[in-house]
Amino acid sequence: MTTISDLSRDLIGDILSKVPITCVGKVRCTCKQWNASSRHRIFGKAVARQFMGFMMMDFKVCLVRIDLNGIVKDEEGSGPVSIKPIDKLNKIEISKVFHCDGLLLSTTRDNTRLLVWNPYLGQMKWIEPKTAYHRLDRYALGYDTNKKSYKILRFVDDAYWPTPLFEFEIYDMNSNLWRALDVTPDWDIEFFRPGLTVKGNTYFFATQKIILDEGEADGDVDDFLVSFDFTKERFGPHLYVPFHSRLHGDTVVLSSVGEEKLAALYQCMDINMMEIWVTTKIEPHAVSWSKLYFLAVDKMVPLLSGSFFIDEEKKLALAFTLDTLGRYKRAYIIGEDEYFKQVDLGEAVLIPDDDDYPYCFPLVCSYVPSLVQINQGLVLSGKRKER
């Protein structure tokens, strides 16, 4: 009689590859072999053909799977792209999602709570603010490479409306404490451009800080990457980017490539050009780049506040954003030989009280499973009012 423990590792991998990441914790308890194979099935051949990650769409966290082998062959549209809401978070409205080393950091739509979640282990933790969170907060999740302790960077730098506000704080998940940081930035990071964490450190696309007494900038300022080193708890120097983006009209979006590389998608509206660059070296004080020539196309993607990912082996890029009118969710597929296809993901959720961004942009992040235990010593879920 054949039992579960008699099944081959490859067959177990095929079975587990069909199980959502958020349900893996339940099947891990089946037997020791399934527990050992659950992480292998995510890294191994069973899912080498798939991209798996999480997406924030319509203020809900969704699991996204993409069939990388079949995506170009699909003629009907959305067949290779599977997006399913996470039942466990269905009652929570989320506005941002960040990934680092198997952990997800999410912010609620009302800007009152932070949630750290390990989907693989099924552990969650609410992070209480030191005083209060702010609607213009930017966040990053990383870790100290010496101690492998996880930390959250929170900052808001707004010199204009309605009143100037300047705060930089860091939260240590081991001590459950916030501490103020002494930072005097000479750069600006746009609110709709989130950072990406690679090897424990977070990188942001930034521009030279300009304080204007009146009028607007001429659209031509220095641009670069700036890193936050979670080990030293400080920002690094300006890092070179292989393009020059103006303040108005051009688009720059960052993405991670596996756990070791950073990618940058650059679009110049004036000459109808799009480029994708990938780092060949990335450290808090040094960076070098290589251009992906096989993904060069003469079409534009409306990526003002969207996200993208690439698969170098399959020579594919997928961008998730809204259409040019900002009303419908789209996935844009870019491949070799100027391959370009649009996938309709439905109508976007309207935000009636937001004049700048009246619809909810979809944001996708890749995911790598982790055995990191979230410190459960202090689990606070009480709300604080937004400032």
TrEMBL record:
Residues 4-42 form the F-box domain. Residues 53-374 form the F-box associated beta-propeller type domain. SUPFAM superfamilies: F-box domain. It holds the Pfam family F-box. This is F-box domain-containing protein. It comes from Brassica oleracea var. oleracea.
